[in-house]
Amino acid sequence: MSGKVDYLIIGAGPAGLQLAAQFQRAGRDYLVLEAGPGPGTFFETFPRHRQLISINKRYTGSSDPEFNLRMDWNSLLSEGSAQDGTPDPDLLFTKRTRSYFPPAQELVSYLHDYAEKTGVRVRYNTRVDQVAKADDRFTVQAGDETYSAKRVIVATGVSKLNLPDVEGIESAERYDTVSVDPDDFIDQRVLIIGKGNSAFETADALVETAAVIHVAGPNSLRLAWRTHFVGHLRAVNNNFLDTYQLKSQNAILDGQVQRIQQNADGSYQVTFSFARVNEVIKELHYDRIIVAAGFRFDASIFDASARPDLVINDRFPAQTPAWESVNVPDLYVAGTLSQMRDFKKSTSGFIHGFRYGVRALGKILDQRYEQQDWPTTELKYDPRAITDAVIERVNRTSALWQLFGTLSDIVTVDEGRVRYLEEVPVDYFKEGGVGVPEHAFVVTLEYGPDHDQVDPFDISVARIAQDQPGQAHDAAYLHPVVRHYRDVRGTPELVATHHLAENLENEWNRPAVHQDPLTEFLDRSLSPAAV
Fold first, then answer.
1. Largest CB tally within 10 Å, which of 128, 225, 276, 365?
2. Phi-psi region of 244 (alpha: psi -120 to 50; beta: other; left: phi over 0)
3. Residue ranges of the chain whose pLDDT lies below 70
4. Class level of CATH domain 3-158+296-369
5. CB under 8 Å to 348, separation ≥6 — which residues?
6. Which fold does the domain 163-293 belong to in CATH?
7. Which residues contact 280 (CB under 8 A, 6 or more apart)?
8. What's residue 523's pLDDT?
9. Where exactly are the structural domains of the chain?
């Protein structure tokens, strides 16, 4: 046996490193196993054209480190010497470069520095071959080494290329290995299968040299500036759309690739079913085909005794609200894999989102295995005091801002005692993860339910006026929502909802517009007449 620990983390990417740093500070018995020679191996290769699409905004006009993390999508969470959760200024990515979309290698360098400064215990060049479970312990095999752990946290990310189920797909080139030299595609006809950022990143890189580029997929193209999901097509990768709409030989094909046949000369014949024209089927011809249809979880390391159930076309492990496998107790996920819980809705698939999920996971593990309650702050039993605490948080929190609708702050009221809990997963609260108090006010930041149904740049579309409390419930843009839950036979039951009005600057601090209506809502909710 090469090692026996309480917590074994698989993967030293961003999520694995941050969770390890949390364990390190808390004195936990843990170890990280990493297949590569250093941290962040994924980013040594991806994105292939080496420009991140995670923003890095150094100048915000604010000196508040918590607020500034809203515009810093690459930093991991850390604690400085104050030990109050304030980020260590030496471990902020924004200190390294002011490039808005930084080079990927800068992130790799940052992760190396983070690992070194936090002193996390990582064994590199240790590829996990098998994970099995027996007698409430996991056995993890890595080459000639065997590790035993009470709990395993999988932080490997989506490391396996997603290959559509298409006849002949194996003859196509792959996003992870195709040449990134545009000169290799001079005057060629190129088909790119996929409609995400990796596909359009590839297409943009070939615009100057390829004769014709077609980007194909069965689903409608979704733009991040409309859906507010940062995994949809980002503006930094959508220059290709101009070349399509302005008739520069390139095109987006909506429909299904049914069959790929490679000819003797290396060219391709593709059978394609068009969705826009009553499924007309055509034969199309290309010199090159590149598959860039995203990534999926690689479950091949799991023995039958520890294999997690998979969901969303088998792309992710199925998870409880605590990010635990639904069928393998004590097997957890962290990082990009956690997006199964808010798939294509919030930001758990990205560093700026999952760093808060990882921090919450650490608190959940502390609750379950270390006999530690969720950290709380005591408040005065007074609606105005509760309002002040909520307003102070929503105006600066990065966690609720990034994991909108997924993480919440919770104000509990029990027998006149008021406590404030920060960054609790909404679904974890609903299943009683932090108890079921007499009253609970769940605070989130959310977009309106139909926020992605209209063009946000269309001035003819009616919009809710800014700072109008009477219309706050119809707001489409990001705004605070406070929900009142009551204990009904041991289960939290929603009884009332209050929306705070939209504000252009995201400053919800106008007394007559924001504070007073919230105080009135809290007062009504806590009054004896409301019971």
1. 365
2. alpha
3. 1, 80-86, 277, 461-465, 529-531
4. alpha beta
5. 336, 338, 339, 341, 342, 354, 357, 403, 406
6. FAD/NAD(P)-binding domain (3.50.50)
7. 273, 274
8. 97
9. 3-158+296-369, 163-293, 376-530
